[in-house]
Design goal:
Largest sheet of chain A: 5 strands, antiparallel
Order of helices and strands of chain A: HHHEHEEEEEEHHE
Low-confidence stretches of chain A: 34-38
Number of strands of chain A: 8
Number of helices of chain A: 6
Mean pLDDT of chain A: 87
Oligomer: heterodimer
Radius of gyration of chain B: 28 Å
Shape of chain B: elongated
Mean pLDDT of chain B: 85
Strand order of the largest sheet of chain B: 3-2-7-1-8
Number of helices of chain B: 7
Strand content of chain A: 15-25%
Strand order of the largest sheet of chain A: 3-2-7-1-8
Distance between the termini of chain B: 106 Å
Number of strands of chain B: 9
Strand content of chain B: 15-25%
Order of helices and strands of chain B: HHHHEHEEEEEEHHEE
Shape of chain A: elongated
Chain lengths: ~220, ~250
């Protein structure tokens, strides 16, 4: 009787151990899954980078305030008002894609079967690094551009135009900063290549990148 | 005697099984604690100092933003007053361009999406890596889908999304136009509510987010609304590198 009781105790202990073991295995697998999926599309925590971004942004905002204060003085002076407005129109026409624009920048070529989200992320990375204008397969991205759509055949479409491989992304801005944002360790290209097999990405700095106006 | 020996062997085997199992569990526990991302190396007061520094910058951002909006309004008013010297055609062109860029607030029918972290996850811990958090990539995907539905204007927590807006993250901090945003995130879009809702309800539109909403309690709600207000862009617009192509050199 006593022996039977001992065996039962052992079985219960074994069962509890197995349950705990199973729980840990699942927890472990899930924690790995969590880490890999999230890391591939989002940057890791870096408090110093966060502070640097905030500091740079605030500096840019102060510069913008200085520019706007100068503009206010000009526009309040009848003689300078017209010139100031013309300058503003020129600036906005360049930003909205009403005119052909050019400047230093980067040329990125992506060969491989990728999902639309990687184009969204790549463009975002360039904008985050200060790109002032971006085009994909020669289509300038403006406020009027549609998003990256995926049609039933799996192809990516923008502004009702199907984008063919290789995808070409061009950006105007500070060349080295733009290039570095893409090619840095744990950057977008590394993460893309880790997620999608066989994707080739070539990034080149260019003295002049030209973008045609949006029709 | 033989029975005792058998019992001894049985007990020994069982003990061995327990030892091996125990070791295995121990190893798993070790890996588990190591994989949950190394805990911060900063002392708590250093973390507090960093948080204070970040909060200071965020407060400054708010002030600078209001100053920029105020100055842009003053400039527009001064331009209206100087209409005679500026010429009304120029003023009309300027108005249309400002609206296209996102320098004017807009109100109209559209869709409002509210998205929030799962209930049991702590965003404040910089070491938390979880699919139960809303990530910058989720907001990028939502904005992209809204753009495929050809919406007129988008904002996230009052930050106007324009052509050059970046939606990024540094760890668990989400930055839109490099401004700090905290959950819940309200994405407002001006456009045909029916078209937008149809696009959002398409199961292929946001597959990852739909799965995480279902499995991990991320809170996602979209509804059409009549009077959605999209504020004007309040960030930096100056450009240093872009210039008009000189046609005479072509």
């Amino acid at each position: 009787m006593n022996q039977l009781h001992n065996i039962k105790k052992r079985e219960v202990s074994m069962l509890l151990t197995a349950v705990l073991l199973g729980f840990l295995i699942v927890l472990q697998a899930r924690s790995f899954e969590d880490v890999s999926d999230v890391i591939n599309r989002n940057n890791r925590s870096d408090v110093f980078r966060e502070i640097q971004i905030l500091k740079d942004t605030n500096d840019q905002l102060r510069d913008e305030i200085d520019d706007l204060e100068d503009q206010l003085v000009k526009v309040s002076n009848n003689q300078d008002a017209l010139e100031s407005v013309r300058e503003e129109i020129d600036q906005y026409e360049a930003l909205t894609g009403k005119i052909d624009v050019s400047g230093p920048g980067v040329h990125v070529q992506i060969s491989g079967d990728i999902q639309a989200l990687w184009l969204t992320d790549m463009v975002n990375e360039l904008l985050s690094a200060g790109a002032e204008a971006v085009s994909v397969n020669s289509i300038r991205l403006t406020n009027k551009t549609t998003g990256f759509d995926t049609i039933p055949s799996g192809q990516i479409m923008v502004n009702s135009v199907i984008l063919n491989e290789p995808y070409t992304i061009e950006a105007i801005g500070e060349r080295a900063v733009l290039e570095n944002a893409l090619i840095q360790s744990e950057g977008i290209i590394e993460r893309l290549q880790r997620s999608v097999n066989g994707v080739e990405v070539v990034v080149e700095q260019r003295d002049v990148v030209t973008m045609e106006k949006v029709l | 005697m033989e029975k005792q020996e058998q019992q001894f062997k049985k007990d020994w085997k069982l003990s061995a099984v327990f030892v091996v199992t125990g070791l295995f569990i121990g190893a798993l526990l070790t890996v588990q604690f190591q994989s949950s991302i190394p805990s911060s190396t900063f002392l708590s007061d250093e973390l507090r100092a960093q948080k204070d520094l970040i909060d200071g910058y965020v407060d400054d951002q708010g002030l600078l933003k209001s100053k920029i909006i105020g100055l842009r309004t003053e400039i527009s008013e001064a331009q209206e007053r100087a209409e005679a010297s500026i010429q009304s055609a120029n003023l009309e062109t300027l108005k249309a361009l400002k609206e296209e860029i996102g320098l004017t607030s807009l109100r109209g029918p559209g869709v409002e999406i509210v998205i929030d972290d799962g209930i049991f996850v702590n965003r404040d811990n910089p070491d938390t890596v979880s699919q139960s958090l809303v990530h910058a990539s989720d907001l990028r995907d939502i904005v992209n889908i809204l753009r495929t539905a050809r919406v007129q204007a988008i904002s996230i927590n009052g930050q106007r999304v324009i052509a050059t807006t970046s939606i990024s993250s540094v760890g668990n901090t989400i930055l839109v136009n490099n401004f700090h945003l905290l959950p819940p995130f309200t994405v407002s879009a001006l456009g045909d509510p029916e078209v937008v809702m149809q696009r959002l309800n398409d199961p292929t539109a946001l597959p990852d987010l739909a799965k995480r909403t279902k499995d991990l309690n991320i809170q996602f709600m979209a509804q059409s609304k009549e009077g959605i207000l999209i504020p004007e862009y309040s960030g930096n617009l100056s450009s240093q590198y872009i210039s008009e192509v000189d046609v005479t050199n072509q």
